[in-house]
Write a structure and sequence with these properties.
- The complex is a heterodimer of chains A (about 290) and B (about 260).
- Chain A is built from 10 helices and 4 strands.
- Chain A has about 290 residues and is an alpha+beta fold.
- The two termini of chain A are about 25 Å apart.
- Chain B is of the alpha/beta class and about 260 residues long.
- Chain B has a 6-stranded mixed β-sheet, with helices on both faces.
- In chain B, helix 1 packs antiparallel against helix 6 and helix 5 runs parallel beside helix 7.
- The chains are: A alpha+beta (about 290), B alpha/beta (about 260).
- Chains A and B meet through helix 7 of A and helix 4 of B.
Chain lengths: ~290, ~260
């Protein structure tokens, strides 16, 4: 096999590259999915009530909202609660604590925080609020508009995915060609043995077998190499991504799913190898 | 070739002997070429209207100069090639009707011997013969016994572990014959088996083929070696430019 070692490395190498690109594509899809999800969770409506609104009025509005089918949850933050939260958030800031201690009364308003099941429904919820009988007690309605950002992210993500897919397919094609060529050389080198096998009455699958196995082995080896390269890279990059977008730990995702990811990669590698081998055999092995 | 070898040979080939009588009675011919034409590239006529019948157990020599079509005709029998028109029948079965998956089984029933021996250079004598059994899926135990027997029969018992490059031309051809015989085929095709051998070795190979024939195997020998054909004194068919020009049924001599 020594004569073939560089060729075999070439075949496995290009197959490994294809698989790494494929895994990269998976990562991008996962990442963008996670980012979109976390943004979706940040969407909510906050309705701030005037200082003189009574708690019973606020709770009435809350009940109405909870009865509205598009609403998922409503959280009531009283003025006292708002002040306590504010103090807690800024406990390290001396300036703010000084200013607070100088206040006679609580300047903060009570609010209702509304979350919906579907980000696109917020407009309807706002309309509902506007029509509520206690609308006069509401000072302002804050609608954190994330939908545009989400749309942009999704279109970027699908753009990258599509291009990524094209590149992966191209590299995959090259990998198949390289494997094809490598196996073709093996067949050529063993022409004498193959001819004798045919004359002596070996069945077709007996002759094909070793070459299909060769292709499969290239694929298997490529898959292992791809995984060995991919996981360390993900580990290194994961920390940096987490700084950028919190709550998205890409490494833990791939680590927890390591069995599925590995099996998928191995399966893909072996299939690619065997398919290239089969094409070579059909073209070059006269049976 | 000692007498004990021949005796051993007979014992080993005993499966063939009962086969002769029924096949002579029930089937008229072992091999039949009917109106065979083979044209290459649309214009070169390699075989022109060949009609030939070979009975079971016959020893037939097909002679002629190079290019007469002898090898082409033999290739039809193993489905290495197909006629442009006409039928090739082996044991009554039209080879054109054989599906591709059956071809390996056909080839196991026909032993072939060639001028260039076609031995695997990286395998020993034993392994070369065993290979033919392995591809048919035989178990290891049976392989060892059969191979040892057949090597003894062709006189190569002491050379089991030698490689082809360590053997003389005559020994290599005898090894090729051993491999051809390992499946106890009903037909042996020998295409210029003595082409690379000297006179003494050629004679030995032909004698071996004659012994194989005596025990029931149909032998088709294609050759342009007149010296050996004249010693066999059996049926000789002469071919020239793709046609059969003479068919001497018995005591044939190499005559063009």
């Amino acid at each position: 096999m020594k004569r073939n070692s560089y060729l075999s490395l070439g075949a496995s190498g290009t197959l490994a590259l294809t698989l790494i690109l494929f895994l990269g594509l998976l990562s991008i899809q996962f990442l963008s999915g996670q980012i979109v999800d976390s943004l979706k969770n940040k969407i909510d409506i906050s309705a701030y009530f005037k200082i003189d609104a009574t708690e019973s009025q606020i709770l009435a509005v809350k009940q109405d909202l909870e009865g509205y089918k598009l609403v998922d949850s409503v959280t009531y933050i009283s003025r006292d609660q708002a002040l306590a939260d504010f103090k807690a958030r800024h406990q390290d800031d001396q300036n703010i604590r000084d200013s607070l201690s100088q206040l006679d009364s609580n300047p903060l308003q009570a609010s209702l925080n509304v979350k919906s099941k579907d980000p696109s429904q917020y407009v309807d919820i706002v309309k509902f609020l506007e029509a509520n009988k206690f609308r006069s007690t509401i000072d302002k309605i804050n609608f954190y508009e994330n939908q545009g950002v989400i749309d942009r992210i999704q279109s970027i993500s699908s753009g990258v995915s599509n291009w990524g897919l094209v590149v992966t397919l191209l590299v995959g094609l090259i990998a198949i060609l390289v494997t094809f060529n490598t196996i073709r050389l093996t067949i050529y080198n063993q022409k004498q043995e193959i001819e004798i096998m045919r004359l002596v009455g070996a069945s077709n699958w007996y002759i094909r077998g070793p070459y299909l196995a060769e292709g499969g082995l290239y694929g298997l080896f490529a898959a292992l190499v791809a995984l060995l390269i991919f996981y360390p890279i993900v580990y290194l990059v994961s920390g940096k991504i987490e700084n950028f977008v919190t709550s998205v730990n890409i490494f833990s995702y791939f680590f927890h799913n390591i069995i599925q990811v590995s099996l998928l990669t191995i399966l893909l590698g072996v299939v690619l190898g065997v398919v290239s081998s089969f094409i070579t055999i059909s073209k070059h092995l006269k049976i | 070739m000692s007498l004990s070898c021949i005796g051993l040979f007979a014992a080993v080939c005993e499966r063939n002997i009962p086969a002769i009588r029924p096949s002579v009675q029930h089937k008229s011919f072992m091999i039949k070429f009917h109106n065979i034409k083979k044209i290459y590239d649309g214009s070169y006529v390699a075989l022109d209207n060949i009609n030939l019948e070979i009975k079971a157990g016959e020893f037939i020599s097909i002679v002629g100069t190079s290019g007469a079509g002898k090898s082409t005709l033999l290739r039809m029998l193993t489905r290495e090639d197909r006629p442009t028109s006409g039928e090739v029948l082996v044991e009554g079965v039209n080879l054109a009707d054989l599906p591709d998956s059956e071809i390996p089984f056909l080839r196991r029933k026909i032993g072939t011997v060639y001028q260039d021996f076609k031995l695997l250079s990286r395998k020993t004598a034993f392994e070369n013969v065993a290979f033919a059994l392995e591809v048919a899926g035989e178990g290891e135990h049976d392989v060892a016994i059969d191979v040892a027997q057949i090597l003894a029969v062709v006189g190569l018992a002491g050379k089991s572990n030698n490689f082809p490059h360590q053997m003389s031309g005559g020994e290599k051809q005898r090894l090729a014959i051993a491999r051809a015989m390992i499946h106890r085929p009903k037909i042996i095709l020998a295409d210029e088996p003595t082409g690379n051998l000297d006179l003494v070795n050629s004679y030995d190979v032909v004698k071996l083929l004659e012994k194989i024939n005596e025990l029931g195997t149909t032998v088709v020998l294609a050759t342009h070696d007149d010296r050996i054909v004249n010693t066999i004194k059996k049926r000789v068919v002469t071919m020239d430019k793709g046609r059969i020009v003479r068919d001497q049924q018995g005591s044939g001599k190499y005559v063009i």
